[in-house]
Amino acid sequence: MTLRLEGVEAAYGLGQVLFGITLEVPAGRLVTLLGRNGMGKTTTVRAVMGLVPIQAGHVHFDGRAPPGAETARRRARRSTGRRRDGDWTPSRRDSPAR
Predict the structure, then answer these.
(1) Assuming Cys at both sites, which of 45, 46, 56, 69 could form a disulfide with 9, CB separation 3.0 to 4.6 Å?
(2) Residue 18: closest CA among 3, 1, 33
(3) Which residue has the higher pLDDT, 11 or 70?
(4) What is the pLDDT of residue 97?
């Protein structure tokens, strides 16, 4: 199964993190993302998984968009536990049991 990212851009609120990421991972290959802190490694993986809304570009598995990508993006927006300004706020699952 080939993974392809084409011009992927993503942001947290007004802070853009990914700027036109393009890469291809052929089936059976292993790839490592390297970089300093804050360079977008985790955001790239989250964008592939649909946990961060993609502002521009496309993610494809074998030439198709991942199934449920839009649903995953809506779910991620609702449950990240982060405000638009980036400060962490506890979500329901982080609250102590009553």
Answers:
(1) 56
(2) 33
(3) 11
(4) 55
pLDDT, tens digit (0-9, with 9 covering 90-100), for 71-86: 555 555 555 555 555 5
CB 41 within 8 A of CB 47: no
pLDDT tens digits for 63-73?
Answer: 787 765 555 55
The per-residue b/e assignment along 34-47, b for 16 or more CB within 10 angstroms, e otherwise, is eeeeeebeebbebb
> Rounded to whole angstroms, how far apart are CA atoms 82 and 22?
27
What is the residue extent of each domain of the chain? Answer: 3-86
Nearest to 71 by CA among 56, 85, 53: 53
> Under CATH, which architecture does the 3-86 domain have?
3-Layer(aba) Sandwich (3.40)
DSSP 8-state assignment for residue 65: P
Burial class (CB in 10 A: 0-12, 13-18, 19+), 3: middle
